[in-house]
Amino acid sequence: MEDLKRALLEQFGLVFADASLLETAFTHTSFANEHRLLKISHNERLEFLGDAVLQLIISEYLYKKYPKRPEGDLSKLRSMIVREESLAGFTRDCQFDRYVKLGRGEEKSGGRSRDTILGDLFEAFLGALLLDKGVETVKDFLYQVMIPKVEAGNFERVTDYKTKLQELLQVNGDVEILYQVISESGPAHAKNFEVAVRINGREAGQGQGRSKKLAEQEAAKNAFEKESHSCF
C-alpha cells in the first residue's frame, strides 16, 4: 500500500486521510475470502458507491457539453464511457492494476488483467475517494483521467466484436455461432457473467462481464483474435 500511496501523491496529488478506505478499495473478494479469519473488507460496497458518483459526474459533463443532443444519444455515449472495458482501460492508465490484492487462484487465472476486476476496481477507488475527499475531488480526478479521452472522441464508436466474428467466419458459408452462459456470480448490484462462444460446437473463446451482453462481447473478442490469427 505504501507504493500505491506514493503513486497517488506523485501522479494526482492525492493523500487519503483514511488509509483503510484505500486498502478496502484495492481488495478483491477473492483475497478477502482467502483470509476470512482476518475479517478483511473487500471492495464491492465501495464499487456500488463509485458507480453512482461516476454516473452522476459523467451525466452532468455530457449534459453541459452537448446541449443540443437528445437524451437517447447522451445515454448511449455515457454507456460507452462507463462500460466495463473503458473503466478497465482507465485502471491500466492509472497503473492501479499493479496494486489490487487478489486471491492466489484469481491471480493464477489472470485476474490482474481481467476487465471485470479492473473495471470494478476503478469504481471502488472512486467510492473510496468520495468518502475520503468528497464529490468535488472525485470530479477533479475524473476530469484529469477520463474527460481528456472523452473529448478526444475515443468513445464515439465501440467495436462490435460479435458482428466482426460473424463476418469473419461466414465469408466461406454459414457457420453456427452460439453463446452460452457458463457461470453467474456476485451480488445483485454487481453480477458477473462468464460466457463461452462456440463455433460449430467447438469452444472458441470465453469472456466475463457485468452483463450477459458484455460477457458475450468479450468472448467474441477473444474468439475473433484467435480466429483471425489462424486465418493468416
Automatic annotation (TrEMBL):
The active site is at D51, E123. It is found in: Cytoplasm. Its cofactor is Mg(2+). Residues 213-232 have a biased composition (Basic and acidic residues). It is an enzyme of class 3 (hydrolase). SUPFAM superfamilies: dsRNA-binding domain-like (SSF54768), RNase III domain-like (SSF69065). It catalyses: Endonucleolytic cleavage to 5'-phosphomonoester. Its EC number is 3.1.26.3. It comes from the Bacteria. Mg(2+) binds at E47, D120, E123. Residues 207-232 are annotated as: Disordered. Residues 160-229 form the DRBM domain. Keywords: Cytoplasm, Endonuclease, Hydrolase, Magnesium, Metal-binding, mRNA processing, Nuclease, RNA-binding, rRNA processing, rRNA-binding, tRNA processing. Belongs to the ribonuclease III family. Digests double-stranded RNA. Involved in the processing of primary rRNA transcript to yield the immediate precursors to the large and small rRNAs (23S and 16S). Processes some mRNAs, and tRNAs when they are encoded in the rRNA operon. Processes pre-crRNA and tracrRNA of type II CRISPR loci if present in the organism. Homodimer. NCBIfam families: RNaseIII. This is Ribonuclease 3. The lineage of its organism: Bacteria, Bacillati, Bacillota, Bacilli, Lactobacillales.
